[in-house]
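Running log. JK asked me to keep both predictions on one page so they can be read side by side. First protein, sequence followed by its tokens:
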Amino acid sequence: MLTRPQQQLAAAMKQYWTDLAKTGSPDSWSEPLWPRFDSASQEMLSLVPPSPVVETGFAAEHHCAFWALAS
């Protein structure tokens, strides 16, 4: 069973997929816009319950530069 926050996120994700299939764009009037990735702003859509949120700073927060050099 999904928790209530997980159900909310699942509904939002279904809407994104439906809009992508219908229009070629995941953007939905009922959910935050899915930002096009830009390496300068590093905006991304975080899919963490209960609802999607546009965030920045993912690379710094997860030490991506370190892991890119380590591989």
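And the second, directly underneath as requested:
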Amino acid sequence: MARRSSTQPKPGTIGALASVHLRRGRAFFLKKVSYAMPIKAEAAAKTLPGAKIPTTAPPSTRDHLIEVGLELMRRHGYGATGLQEILGAAGVPKGSFYHHFGSKEEFTGAVLERYIAIEGEHCRQVLGNMRQPPLRRLRRYFEDLVRTAGQSAPIQGCLIGSLSLEVAGASPLLQRCLSSGFTHWQAAVTAVLLEAVEKGDLQNSTRPETLASFVLNSWEGALLRSQADKSDDPLKDFLHYIFEDLLAK
């Protein structure tokens, strides 16, 4: 009988469960990162003195529309971003839009997919850095989100959260996209919490999936309050109570 490799976790153990959640989270977040990488590489190159921006092929009309729609919807929301605003900002005729998308709803689904891919690449880079302890990686991840979604960011808020409030109750298609985004985001956080349990950083009685759900729900609530108050204080409170109380040894 073949022997199990010593590098593979035994079925039913925390290590096996962590492996499953990590694969789920990474598979989802890596699925569309090819959209995000040229944008991030160009932005990074611009910040380096004397750096040359790599030559890349111009985006297709479809990709250009999605990029424009992503910025407009992040700034103004779904309802305030009309088709004419999208076409005007993109410099694209209406016929080209309907060649690629059957409706604004379908277009918004593609915008969400792009946003999740970009955010997923950041999640993979930070949470996948195995050189750091799991809870330290998780804190760094949310500290990064405070900088990129808080009041000092060029565009505040989270598109998944804002669209959940605005359209999830009216569009079954977008509701499924939003729910899937949260589910796989939660899987990535769950994998880190499972690793923390396995390493003894959290108690064995910890329920990582439930805890990951609570952490993400708390983050989205804090982000919403931050926007209402025009203050990062709710985000700072989130970091303090999650990492210095709830997840402290």
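Observation for JK regarding the second prediction: The radius of gyration is 20 Å.
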